[in-house]
Amino acid sequence: MWTHLSYSTLHIELQNLIKLAALAGDQAPVINSNTLTVSSMATVEMEDFSDPQLWVLIILMILGGEVFTSMLGLHFKNARANTDYARQRRLAFISRDIESSDVFNNSSQNNMEGIQSEATMTDNQVQEHKEVNQNSRNILAHVVAGYFIAAIVCGSVVIVICLWIDSNTRDLLKSKDIKMWTFSAFTAISSFANCGFTPVNDNMAIFRNKPTFLLLIIPQILVGNTLFAPMLRLSIWALGKVSKRKEYAYILQHPKEIGYRHLQTHKNSVCLVLTGVLLILLQSMALCYFESDSKAFEGMKWFQKSVVSVFQSASSRHAGETVINISTLSPPILVIFALVMYLPSSTSFFSTFGDSQTLTDKKESPNSRATWEKFVITKPACLAIFIVLACITERKSMSADPLNFSIFSIIFEVISAYGNVGYSLGYSCDKLLKPDATCRDASYGLVGRWSDEGRMVIILVMFLGRFKTSTLKRKKNLNVHPCGSPHQRAAEVAGN
């Protein structure tokens, strides 16, 4: 957790420096640029960014994505483990040489030869197991890196092909001075990293009548977060079938020993897929039932409505990309979206055999936890506290503009920030109780109208949501001989 926290803090400071340099002379975004790479809760129009600035955001989205940060942590962990493993091997060889000389000088030749060979066999098995484990971890790090690169490259190429075929969209981007390759790379990386941004102000609304394009983006959204763990396991299985290397089989059979939190067992992976598909289907059916004739789906045919419903449902977990104006949706749909946004990507509604807990509820035994850890406040309680703080900071706006700053809008905004989704009910000048000629509707969310104190609350909520899957782990002492010392093993063999 601390490595992840340190990396994210350094990442945020890097974003601040780059954004201040890139937007010199312009009005910089008020919310920390971490929102641009995680929660997509922007406070500026996306079309205000120039092409170089869009590429800066592309790099930042890559660095801030869940897959990249977990991959970076895996490489750091492997580097440290490789160093420890090399030190353990050296100590093991030295210990073995000492024991061999002791046995040769102080023991009877016949009995101790058998004891020594058996102890050596045990040592060899332990070393072989450790070597396979370490090699498997290194291979997994390369697999995750390959998965990351392949997803981004394939997604970018698919979008380029779609734009090349669709001349209308290509002309629209040209009229907005957005290059085709920039748009393709930006959209593919944003979808994969679940950042929820596109270079245009209307997000994905320009593709609302292009169901084929939306169907191609849906897998890009899912493989980058919700279905990353199952797809990673599937990739490892496929590579194992092709290469026939034993390390791939070891990775699949011992995910806990590998120590990568996105590597799940077969049963858990199936549960994640079932949960993800079920949530998408439930949201899609609810959208089609409640909103089929609403303003949000106006002018669409039944197939387009179905595809838009599926896309919006897949995006509501973490991606935050929008095809329709969600502020026009009915309250039941908004409540469903709020509930779904709260759930982390590792949520499973199905329990494995002999396990009645979901993947996110599994914890170590309370007896093994430190006393101070037992008093940590729960995440729902934290959310409730932040909602109250947001209401306090925005109390003047809630009194003067109750339709835009309703209590549900505040709750929705906070939950969206916690889930790192970026959905917002927006701000409409038509909802003002007293018409204001200077009021201007903007494409960014309601947070753009909040006070500085309220924005700080949202930033803290995003940090809480960013680390909601992290847990504190105590370091284990270095154990050179996991199976006991040579003297102990020799004594055990002699006793038998």
Automatic annotation (TrEMBL):
Domain of life: Eukaryota
Full protein name: Uncharacterized protein
Organism: Avena sativa
